[in-house]
Structures are given as C-alpha cells and as structure tokens.
Specification:
Elements (H helix, E strand, L loop, with lengths): L4 H4 L3 H16 L7 H28 L1 H7 L12 H29 L6 H18 L14 H21 L6 H24 L10 H5 L1 H24 L12 H15 L3 H24 L5
Amino acid sequence: MRVVDYWRLPRGINVLMGTLAVPAGALLVIDISESAALHAVLLHALSVAGFMAGWNTLNDVNDLEADRINRPDRPIPSGQVNLEAARRFGLLMMGISVAALVGIIIHAERTFDGLVWWDSIVIWLMALFLFTSYEYDGLPFTPCLKRQGFKGNLAISVLVSVLLVFGAAAVGEGLEPLPWIVALAALAINTSREIIKDVQDLAGDTDRTTLPMDIGPEQARTYAWVCSLVGMVFLVLPYGLAMLPKGAIVLQLPALLSVIMAKPKLISGEDARASAHLKAALFLGLLGFIASALLTDFF
C-alpha cells in the first residue's frame, strides 16, 4: 500500500472528524487542560480513530462488488489496494482500538476514583455491536442492517453521534445532557446524509433494500430534508436552553448555512453536492461547538 492509501482507504477525513468529536464532547462538560483528563481524552480519541479506520476499511472489503459500480475510484475496486492487504489493515486498526481501550481502563484505575471507565466500555461495546450488526449477516440480524434500508442509516448515524458522548465519558461525565443534545444534532444530519448516499448508490446496491428503493428517490430526498431540519433544531437548542452562551450561537451560522445550501441540491437531484454540504455541516457544527466551549468567557 502507498502512503496515500493509508488515508484514502479508511476515509481519512471521516476518521479525523470522528476523532475530533472526542475532545469536543469532553470540552462540552469540563476543562480538559488538566493532565489526567487530557491523557484520558487522547486514549479515547486513539480508540475512536482505530475503530473508525477499521470499520471503514472492512466495509470497503465487504462492499467490493457494489463499489465496482458505485465507487470504482475507491482504492480496492480500482486495484490500488489488494483485497487481503485491506482486510489486514482493517483488522490492525481494530486491534489498535482495543489496545487503546485497555489503556483507558488502566489509566482510569490509576488516576480516578471509582469505575469512571465503565461508561466508555459500554459505549465501545455498543459500537462493536453496531459494527457487526451492520456488516455481517447473522451477527445477530439476518440480513445485516446495511441491507435493511433506514435501519442501516440509523446504525451508522448512531455510531457517528455517540462519539461526542464517548468524549464526555472520557472525563467521567457521560450522563451530562449537553453532549447528548449535540449528539442528536449529529444523528439527524448524518442520517440525512446517509439517505442521500443511498439515493446516489441505487445502481450498485443490488444486494440490499434501501429507503430510496422502498419509497423512491424523490420521497427519500424529502425524508432527508426533514432529518436535516431536525438537525438544525438541535444545533441551536443548547444555546436556547442556556447550556452554552446564547451569543455563541453565531458560531453555528456556517453549519446552519451549509445545511440550508443542501436544499436546492436536493430539489435539483444533485445528490453528491447535497451530501457534501451536509458533511461540511457536520464538521462546521463540530467546530462551532468546540469554539463555543473554548470561548465561553467572550460571550
């Protein structure tokens, strides 16, 4: 594998966004500049990076035939990465995630009082359950969730959104309401994006039943837009409830505008552009929440 393949194969941008969600979730509940908290957050971020890189890679391994049609430029169907090499890389990344999880437990036992690592273990195991349920028939669902339309969209989106709660759990605050509200914003917007991606992939998704197959691409786009609107509500809700400074809501304007810009693309059937706008909204919203937490004194 070439160096660039180690970035493209696991979808490096997505892994980076997921990894950033961990310190974002922690910053929403405490100041993480203290050494013990910072080390805990870094271990959680490493576990997320490994898990996401592993899942994304193994997903490409399993979806090779569909990607020959839908995404022939991806590293495996294009022949740039050998299938077996990709599988080994995916398993290695999963191994790194497990090793980081062990590090989380050891660090917490040495540093904090009580079982503060318990929330982290529960969330990680839930993510593992979603991974196996989504990718593999019979573990435990037959067919697996990615062949079950909207259920698969939700499974991916739950994984993306729970990373913020995982970050809060890193510092023993996994039950604080603010990270959960922010996670709901990510859940709604990412679900919208997953639906749109299924519209894009209609031609190659012959081994599964997706929402656009069930209700048609036009109605699926409508569902996606409704999810986007729900996401916008949760983007601003923490400011309305004074969980974050009300003036800091301006930091969410780029994310809100990015969601709004997806609407005309959905109407015109430019699904790739709509998906890109929603992906940008997820990233900009994450940055907005990080900035809101860091700049509290300025508002």
